[in-house]
Amino acid sequence: MPSKITGFKPLLCAAAASFGILSVAPAIAQYTGPTASPATTGSVMVPSVASHVTTVEQALVAPDDAVAVIEGFIVNRLKHEHYTFRDDAGRTIEIELDDKYLPPGRQITDTTRVRITGEVDRHRFRPNDIDVKRIEILP
């Protein structure tokens, strides 16, 4: 039985062939060359999103979503789930620490040494802060 649409079959074949060629291209092309070194701002290194921020000073200039792993102290509570964190160099940054991440049965004071792990949240009109995803009490 002949098809009523005669020009459709060649168009369909051309589209399928194009799709086949395009779908193979991403699997073949991979970048394997060197990676650019992180940019710097003054004497403070601005980490790439893949690198770890280890001080409050770095977190204050880091890009959005940079991974932060910093040791220090939670020195005061600003409001529910928002605190001030101070690192060993004495620099401070606001952190957002959901109650669900607090260790059960353990009390944290301003003299309790902790390690926070989270992501830097970059803001346009206020300083960066850290969204904490894990907290560890250190000896």
From TrEMBL:
Residues of the signal peptide: 1-29
A Pfam cross-reference name: BOF
Q: Which residues form a coiled coil?
A: none
- Cross-referenced SUPFAM superfamilies, in alphabetical order? Hypothetical protein YgiW
Instruction: Tell me what this protein is called.
Output: NirD/YgiW/YdeI family stress tolerance protein
Domain of life from the UniProt record: Bacteria
Which keywords does UniProt give here?
Signal
